Amino acid sequence: MSEFKVANLDEKIPHLVDFKESLFQLNNWWDAASIIARVNQDSLNGQGASLLESMQQTKTRFIELQDRLHECLLKESFLKVQMDISFKSQNVIDVLNRNLFERTADVGFLATDTKISNFVLGEVPKAEIIQHLKQYVAKYSVYDEIFILKLSGEVAANIDQTNKVKKSSDPLIREVKQLKTGYKEYYRFTDLKPNTENSHLFCAPIKEHGGADAATLGILVMSFKLKDEMERIYSTLLSKEDSSVLALLDNHHKVIATSNTQQLQHQASINPQQVLHQLTSQEYIANTSATRGYQGYTGLAWSGLSMLAVNQAFKQSNTKIIKSEEYKLWKDSNLVSNELKQINKDSKSLNRELTVLTLNGKSISYRLKANSFMPILEKLRELGGEMNTVVDKSVAEINSTALSNFKENCIFYSNLAIEIMDRNLYERANDCRWWALNQEFISALQQAELSKDKLRLICAQLGYINDLYTVYTNIFIYDKQGKIITASKPADLPTDSYNVANNTWCTQTLKLQNSQQYAVSDFAQSEFYAGKSTYIYNAAIKNNLGENIGGIGLVFDSEPEFKAMLQDSLPLNEHGQIIESALALFITPEGKVISCSDDTWSPLDTIELPASLTQLAPAESNQELILLDGNYYLAGATASSGYREYKNTNDYVNPLLAVVLIKL
Fold first, then answer.
1. DSSP string, 618-635
2. How many other C-beta atoms lie within 10 A of the C-beta of residue 564?
3. pTM for the whole thing?
4. Fewest CB within a 10 Å sphere: which of 33, 35, 212, 549?
């Protein structure tokens, strides 16, 4: 990252200003002392010239050291800020894209819903289909409107009864009609929502009898609550004290959404190559990040933006929170640049050389009785010591600021990790409940004996769902005796006629009272996951009388998914890679490991952490310096508090924590 060389920020960094002023005064004193020494060099009987030359060489090396330190402090200061704002800009877009990926799967699945296709064919009353869609939104509360359109553009049904639109001439109708498979995503004005400036729409063709390859009957349009979602992302990434401005940019780098409309307005254009930006009366350092993608989804080529006012960016951190033990461990750790460590060593070495030089000079002066030269030598020695003190102080300040920043960010990183987890598992809880309402699954479980054709149909439908929702390794349906009748990947089942009745999660599922409830297995080794540990999400399948006639089970692909969540929450270096000494875990309050960002701990291992990190109330965080397996770590932990309805409506209790460890 070379931006710090051209950004000309050194005059805006307080500790660099102090550094330059202190050295300017000391260098002037040195020059003055050198002039006086030259005037008095004759008193040394010819030995003064060589002594002064040695002193000048030492001064030159001090100047070179000062330049190296100035460059290093400038770079370290800028990189600290750049790492922070780039981390935020990356997560603005990546956290959103994780959510939007789920929406692409939703619209693909819902467009093949049998009840919806039957409604378009005139076989289901309008009131019933609206209630059906409202049931969906009750589970997936990320939508503010759903439309079922006829191919003519006529609005056949929509859930927002205040929206009286009757017909649409939006080009999406023509574009979606042409689709054989897949979906379309738009962000723009639509006449379907005439009172909204721009809408975020996910659209797919409605297929006859729910078949993915069947004739197109109509168009499904789902409107995503983008503004609401962005507000939630801002609240995750910004603390109360954080004055950063976050924004979402479209593919032309214009602002779609912003955390601060006073500083950054909608539709403002941002140059992604520009480091410094002028907003109102302030100068901001900025970073723009394209998405890293999720499950192959990259969306509409949007990007995340993070900006921080220069006068806030280099503000002194609260170094009072640093303990001496922490600082000692920090300054010797790999997190401090080798150049900074070397400068500190070189400064001390130079000061020792100067001390020896002045002592030799004093010896010569004493022998030749050149008393007038003695105070000059003493002054030069003092100046060398003061220069060394300035170097020590500057290095200590940058180290203390970096340490303080990492301590504070340990909590921030853990908070982001648990937020990403809660968001993801919210979707899992929704998926199982919604798919349990599928009419084909209900019909299959009501039959005394399933034909091979019916089994193939159900298996194909489960396979279609699994292809859309790639976070599951298998999806299976079982009857009220616990016998699995089919699955999205039958070959991956433990046996052809597997019965799950002895599993607690099956028993719980078959006792669920309504379609808003669900059951989740403990995090444990499972035959359905090749003997590895995972969660299985379940919902009861009910007949029209509300009786439980079976259930649906979703095997979450926990190993790569949890690891990816943790890795996405860790700090990155200037090359965009996770810093070498950082790792993160999901654990239970008892210390059972759910996942680790690397291979240090495996699922179901036990990690011993202090109660101050594990016994936290929902959403509570804490930070500690800990000794673990012979190594010291800065540790930050945050307890799960759920997302939207998930874990916030007495629907599910599973206390978990995210822990971030930074090795010193």
1. TT-EEEEEEEETTEEEEE
2. 18
3. 0.85
4. 35
Q: Are 554 and 601 contained in the same domain?
A: no
Tokens linked to 568: 């996405």
**Of 227, 118, 218, the residue nearest 168 (C-alpha):** 218
Q: Which amino acid is at 435?
A: W
CA–chain centroid gap for 644, Å, is 18
Residue 183 DSSP label: -
Q: How far apart are CA 577 and CA 596, in angstroms?
A: 17
On whether residue 478 sits in a domain, the answer given is yes
User: For 514-577, where are the E strands, in sequence order?
Assistant: 519-520, 524-525, 533-534, 536-542, 548-556
Last residue of a domain, one of 358, 388, 407: 407
Q: What is the pLDDT of residues 62-96, one digit of tens each?
A: 788 778 888 888 888 888 888 889 999 999 999 99
Strand partners, 305: 247, 288
* Listed residue (409, 426, 423, 425) closest to 570, CA to CA: 409
Six token digits for residue 552 = 């649906």
Q: What whole-number distance in Å separates Cα of residue 554 and Cα of residue 537?
A: 5
Can you say whether the dihedral through the CA atoms of 4, 259, 289, 254 is positive or negative?
negative
d(CA 503, CA 442): 22
Q: What is the mean pLDDT of residues 582-596?
A: 96
Helix (H) or strand (E) segment spanning residue 129:
helix 126-139
Do the domain assignments include residue 417? no
Cβ proximity of 518 and 433 under 8 Å: yes
Same domain assignment for residues 592 and 540: no
How many CA atoms are closer than 13 Å to the CA of 634, on its beta-carbon side? 28
pLDDT in tens, 19-77: 777 777 777 766 666 666 665 655 555 555 666 677 777 777 778 877 888 888 888 88
Per the domain annotation, does 338 fall within a domain?
yes
Instruction: Say whether both 515 and 591 belong to one domain.
Output: no
pLDDT digits (tens, 9 = 90+) for 403-449: 777 888 899 999 999 999 999 999 999 999 989 988 889 999 998 88
- CB contact at 8 A, 171 and 213: no
599-626 burial string, b = 16+ CB within 10 Å, else e? eebebeeebebeeebbebeeeebbbebb
Task: Decide if 458 contacts 486 (C-beta within 8 A).
Answer: yes
Three-state SS for 617?
coil
Q: Distance between CA atoms of 327 and 400, rounded to whole angstroms?
A: 7
Contacts for 297 with CB less than 8 Å, ≥ 6 apart: 97, 100, 101, 104
Q: Which domain range does residue 453 map to?
A: 438-560
Q: How many domains does the chain have?
A: 3
> Both 556 and 452 in a single domain?
yes
Question: Residues 571, 409: contact at Cβ < 8 Å?
Answer: yes
